């Protein structure tokens, strides 16, 4: 027999042993399948919009077909876990008291008059057009100038919970959009 045939004959039993039910490799696959089933249940019970639900269903189908060793498997799974954790269709009623907002901004932040004026304009527009779908405030600047603290003050003024999303290591928009 050739050297190659001997190798093949020797490897076959080893491969069979590796796939015996109850081995570590088999348990890892079962755990991942359980995680996928849990993700599917969370997607079904979540309150996400129809379009987001369709995207999640499509991604879960891709995830089932994908080998776990692929880097995209982890990315897709993380994306789906994020989608499930988002507070879909949950909102709070805003307190749009401009005087209280002015006092709070003056107490919390020294100077920054242009920024405070812009935030108060934002609140005034929200007060006039109550049905306005969430205009977004985006604070840009170097580290340490007060972007986070201003955001925290605006959230406190509106009576909303403050969430900070650090984008320090993000260098590609697909990390945010989730369409890798």
Supply the key terms:
about 180 residues, mainly alpha, Rossmann fold, 2 domains, 8 helices, elongated, ATP hydrolysis activity, serine-type endopeptidase activity, P-loop_NTPase, ATP-dependent peptidase activity, ATPase_AAA_core
Describe the structure.
With 180 residues, the protein is mainly α. It folds into 2 domains: 3-85, no CATH class; 91-180, Rossmann fold (3-Layer(aba) Sandwich), CATH 3.40.50. The protein has helices at 3-18, 24-45, 50-65, 71-85, 98-108, 113-128, 147-158, 174-177. Helix 2 (24-45) packs parallel to helix 4 (71-85), helix 5 runs antiparallel to helix 6 and helix 5 runs antiparallel to helix 7. It is elongated, with a radius of gyration of 26 Å. InterPro entries: ATPase_AAA_core, Lon_Prtase, P-loop_NTPase. Residues 137-171 form the ATPase AAA-type core domain. GO terms for molecular function: ATP binding; ATP hydrolysis activity; ATP-dependent peptidase activity; serine-type endopeptidase activity. This is ATPase AAA-type core domain-containing protein.
Report the uncertain regions. none
How is the main sheet built?
none
How helical, in percent, are the residues?
Answer: 55-70%
| Alpha carbon gap, first and last residue | 49 Å
Evaluate the radius of gyration: 26 Å
Beta percentage is under 5%
Find the CATH topology of the largest domain.
Rossmann fold
Element string (H = helix, E = strand) = HHHHHHHH
* Average pLDDT taken over every residue: 81
Report the strand count. Answer: 0
Domains, number: 2
Overall 3D geometry?
elongated
By CATH, the architecture of the largest domain is named 3-Layer(aba) Sandwich
CATH level 1 name of the largest domain = Alpha Beta
Structural class, judged by helices and strands? mainly alpha
Spell out the CATH superfamily of the largest domain. P-loop containing nucleotide triphosphate hydrolases
The tally of helices reads 8
